[in-house]
């Protein structure tokens, strides 16, 4: 029977956590990504824009429909960023909102699409896309 003898081998390595400096520039963050010792230009927020496909009128009309379907008071804040769940809507309320949107805009929303809508803006964007198709 053969036996192997030797010293135990040790391997150690460490991962150095990347330090990403973040600085504030007029309430907007910019990020510089140093890679391999080289520094690349900072990514500034002004290079990125959030654009909404829906017209302001569409968003406003969706806000009105949501306010009506959920029986919200006139002073309740409903904006494009408003989430249906945060406004107190359950799944049945969301179905009723979609039905109200279909009736108001003369569109038909497929069930799969209706289930993905969580905000006023998403609803308005979907409406604009459906109107463009027709």
TrEMBL record:
List where the protein spans the membrane. none
Q: Which UniProt keywords apply?
A: Fatty acid biosynthesis, Fatty acid metabolism, Lipid biosynthesis, Lipid metabolism, Phosphopantetheine, Phosphoprotein
Q: Which GO terms describe its biological process?
A: fatty acid biosynthetic process
Query: Which PROSITE patterns does its entry note?
Result: CARRIER (PS50075)
- Check the record and name the InterPro entries matching this protein: ACP, ACP-like_sf, ACP_chloroplastic, PKS_PP-bd, PP-bd_ACP
Q: What family is this?
A: Belongs to the acyl carrier protein (ACP) family.
Q: What does this protein do?
A: Carrier of the growing fatty acid chain in fatty acid biosynthesis.
Q: What is this protein called?
A: Acyl carrier protein
Q: Which organism is it from?
A: Eucalyptus globulus
State the taxonomy lineage: Eukaryota, Viridiplantae, Streptophyta, Embryophyta, Tracheophyta
